Please model this.
Amino acid sequence: MASVKLTGVKKIYDKKVVAVHDFDLEIKDKEFVVFVGPSGCGKSTTLRMIAGLEEISEGTVEIDGKVVNDLQPKDRNIAMVFQNYALYPHMTVYDNIAFSLRLKKVPEDVIYEKVTAAAETLGITDYLLRKPRALSGGQRQRVAIGRAMVRDSKVFLMDEPLSNLDAKLRNQMRAEIILLRQKLNTTFIYVTHDQTEAMTLGDRIVIMKDGYIMQVGTPTEVFEMPKNLFVAEFIGAPKMNIMPAELTKTSSGAYSVKAFGVSIPVDGEKGAALSAKNAKNGKVLLGVRPEHITLTEAGPEAIPVTLEVNEMMGSELHLHVYTDDGMRLIVRVPTVNLDNETRKSLVQGKKLYLTFSGKVMHFFDPKTEENLLN
Amino acid sequence: MSKEQKKAFEAEGRAARKHMGLKTSQRISNTFIYILLVVISIVWLIPFIFILLQSFRVESTNQVGYVIPQQWGFKNYIALWNSDFKSWYLNTFIIALVTAVMQTVIVLCMSYTLSRFRFKLRQPLMRFMLILGMFPGMLTMIILYRVLKDLNMTQANAVPGLILVYIASSGMGYYVSKGFFDTIPKSLDEAARVDGATRMQVLTRIILPLAKPIVIYTILTAFMAPWGDFVFARYVAFGTSSGYNVAVGMYNWLNKDQIGACFTMFCAGGVIVAIPVAILFMCLQKYYVEGVTGGAVKG
Model:
């Protein structure tokens, strides 16, 4: 168990390409931090710099208060789980898990105890004598986790460990990682491109883009108060609807927003926050999450749209619609609220009317793309 | 029988005839291929059978006009044992063994380095070695002889001299094994390094066990080259019997003064020389094929 501190960490390839820019982050002892972002955002590179598998171009990485920049991976007291499992194909599951302990010259009886205990925790006791090729993807991933577990490391690093698994197995393994974290109670740094994994696993999430940190916060913070347009669109599935709008402050001091010719008052906390920030009138980018938009009857406060695609997701429908001026939006409608007839009527080309409350709006500066309420 | 049943019956008949036709044509082509292979094998085996038969011939030590010996025995092998052949065989064995071990170590380290490490002159070095490899080794013979002569590693001291020459160019033969190492995922090295392994432990405990076929291939090729070398060995050991290897020593039996007395002994020597290589190949054949073809396609 240890804290990890990254100060001004940079990764420059061939003195030209900057993969990670001035990365500053302090990870507390026993914290579960998730690095999330699209491909090429530098999340894996940052993790590999912490592991010692990638040279640090500038800045420092500290583990438990000690600068580890020049230490070999083996001397950093870390354990790592790789995306492609990286199991040694010529060794049995037992030997794979025991490998690091044998290198440390731990007595065989202690190794036996540790390996069998880890195998029991992960439910792979029956496979200890098998070679990795005789295991399924999920079992292989468990072995990889087991190999990291027996090392009793200060920091547990995971580089997209669930990416190679199918959707069903991924959900199962995600739950198992949550349980494992409770058992191990150590510092975790987890890299993923899947925002659902990030939201469900992390105490804090680090959202990255093009080598820069976009936002660091708890899952609730990044979901409810995205710092900028990128975070707003990246976190949440389906992604947040972004539409051009006009923000107006009325004579009474209240705010309203006009989108697609419909004026909607901004009330609740959002309205108060705009007042506190003394937001000016003008063009804004309005963000509304698909689950916050509701279907309504035709009326002066309803936005008319045409249904393009209706995706049946089981407990909800994802309606892909477009407005009269061609703007595409997604609406998430729980099926429990729909009667059979309405459900059947939602076919391509159907005219629908949408509305949303002022309480759920996000406002972004069209130029800087920063959240106006930050 | 209804119309549908009749149609189905006819269709079944057509399929069966087609199947039989296929079987017959396949049988004919297989027969042809096997006959061809048997003929090729016989052509290949004739010289070996000839040498084997001559080595057991007792009635005459000279070349004769027939193949099957009239009198059989081990006389030639016994004569071989009492000749200089023993020391030549030992010389060859020492040279081949030391070269095989050293060359394998050098080639595997070189291949691992070029496959896994990224350093400034890596690409130019590989290109340089590719170009250098295009020149025939014979070109270096004169200068190598001069160097060995200055180091007192010729004639009677040809064995260490030849070992030095064979080992010196080992690094050049890294291509096949580097190609094989390239197919082993780098994440295995990284996982091992995180697990606490040094670079050397990564090579010996992870990479080499996975690259068993290529290690075997490297050992075999490293053993074979000095085992059968003639030109270089003759040049370095020139005129001194104690420095000869089997190829050079036995070659001298074929000159016109000696062939009459030594031809059958030469054949017996040929058989003895072939034995270790044949055993090696038989034991390691599986790995050898994997090694030669490995790395061509990602498995």
